[in-house]
Prior knowledge:
Blueprint: H1 2-28, H2 35-42, H3 46-52, H4 56-105
Helix pairs in contact: 1-2, 1-4
Amino acid sequence: MANQQREDTEGSTKQRILKEAEKLFAVKGFEGTGIEEIARNVGIRKSVIYYHFKNKEQILQTMLDDFVARGVAFKKSFFERYASSWRSWMSSWRRWSSSWRRIGES
């Protein structure tokens, strides 16, 4: 139970760091944002950030990896959701265009 609680706390702390870093990077830029400022805004010590991340570059890399993963997941769910509709639409389009070609050939 204690390990689970610690993992939950660590996970939420890491997410809070990422969320705050994203805000600061957006406003001040990557170069204009420091680890100390991220820590202060999250309400933690700098050492806690270094517990989760090697450096500021790793924070940015984690943010980018998460962004790409969310994009891939969205694309996958989009295609899974609409693939059958798309196939149905394409089939209808082929029948319609084929019938118009036959009319034009008459």
